[in-house]
UniProtKB/TrEMBL annotation:
Identification of the protein by name: GntR family transcriptional regulator
Pfam families linked to this entry: GntR
InterPro entries with a match to the protein in the record: Tscrpt_reg_HTH_GntR, WH-like_DNA-bd_sf, WH_DNA-bd_sf
Matching SUPFAM superfamilies: Winged helix' DNA-binding domain
Domain HTH gntR-type: 15-83
Keyword tags: DNA-binding, Transcription, Transcription regulation
Length: 128
């Protein structure tokens, strides 16, 4: 199964490539490309698909193994952990709250936007 994100991937300089690889795999778990206990692409397949060094892929996958998102079946490859989707959602919600919303409110304060102004802007974006 090919990664949906991988088809159009462009790595940026803001974050190490191995972290971006991990993020792509997480996105594929969240969007259903990979399901619980399903095998992900091999290191060689990811390396070829992204045109990057296999060691970089191994490092990205290693991050997800350490977080309990992926697990290894000896001799078979890497698989999605049963609670991977929930773990990813929890991590990203926490990051969203601590980083993005904090930055948003800081900027809103500088612009003297009220909570109602922010809510209306969010509602408008959701409609678009």
């Amino acid at each position: 199964m090919l990664s949906g994100e991988a088809m159009n991937v462009t790595f940026d300089d803001k974050q190490p490539i191995f972290q971006q690889v991990a993020h792509i795999i997480e996105d594929d778990i969240l969007n259903g490309t990979y399901r619980e206990d399903e095998q992900i692409l091999s290191v060689a397949q990811f390396s070829q698909l992204f045109q990057i060094n296999p060691a970089t892929v191994v490092k990205g996958i290693g991050l997800l193994v350490n977080e309990g998102i992926l697990y290894k079946k000896r001799g078979l490859g890497m698989y999605v952990s049963p609670d991977a989707k929930q773990k990813i959602q929890n991590q990203r919600r926490d990051r969203f709250y601590k980083e993005l919303l904090s930055d948003l409110l800081c900027e809103a304060d500088k612009l003297e936007l009220t909570t109602e102004d922010i809510i209306n802007m969010i509602k408008q974006l959701r409609k678009e």
